[in-house]
Amino acid sequence: MSLLTPEQFAAAQKANLETLFGLTGKAFEGVEKLVELNLQAVRSNLAESQEHAQRALSAKDAQEFFAVQSSFAQPLAEKLLSYGRHVYEIASATQAEFAKVAEAHYEEQNRKVQSLVDNVAKNAPAGSETAVAVIKSAINAANTTYETVHKATRQAVEMAESNFNAATAAASKAAAQASRSAAAATTAKKPA
After folding, report:
1. How many folded domains does the chain comprise?
2. All residues at 6 or more sequence positions from 177 whose CB lies less than 8 Å from its CB, including other chains
3. Residue 3 in contact with residue 64, Cβ under 8 Å?
4. Torsion sign (Cα): 122, 127, 129, 135
5. Sequence-distant (≥ 6) Cβ neighbours of residue 70 within 8 angstroms
6. Residue ranges making up the domain that contains 146
7. Residues 27-49: tens digit of each pLDDT
8. Which of 3, 14, 153, 172 is deepest in the core (most CB within 10 A)?
């Protein structure tokens, strides 16, 4: 007794290839977004570094030089935080696409297994009810385990996102405070 006809096998292989190429496309989209982000960051940093160097070199005294240096710290910290957020968003979006495909694939496979078990149960010889019940029980246990792991994973991802957002906000606040303190210290040292 064959479980799959050649047509079913070919259809399954075709579906698997489509899934593979779809996921590969999503992975490349994520990589393209990261490359684009990196190119923008490099262009921006080069232009700002040139401007900053020119301002620092045109300083008339050490105090002005340090003031220029301290004015550079806050925007740099904010840009680094923004860059990190963008990288995280790209990675998170790509991961979400992979998870969506994996979940759909799992649900489809689960339906097929349930259908197969039901078909086997209908055609099983008399006296095999216990074996069929054990198989159904094992499948239900596996599904329950999957759901539990999936729920825990989703909660962990949500917690990680929340922690990332909190850390980003705290770092941004700390960078702003450090910049204000440096600016205040520089201003206090200027002669009247």
Report:
1. 1
2. none
3. no
4. negative
5. 179, 182, 183, 185, 186
6. 7-121+128-189
7. 999 999 999 999 999 999 999 88
8. 172
Instruction: Measure the CA–CA gap between 169 and 81, rounded to whole angstroms.
Output: 9
- Is residue 117 situated within a structural domain? yes
Alpha carbon 130 to chain centroid, angstroms: 45
Question: In sequence order, what are the residues at sequence separation of 6 or more whose Cβ sits closer than 8 angstroms to the Cβ of residue 143?
Answer: 110
pTM over 0.85: no
Euclidean distance between CA atoms 171 and 21, whole angstroms: 39
Inter-residue contact 41 to 128 (CB < 8 Å) = no
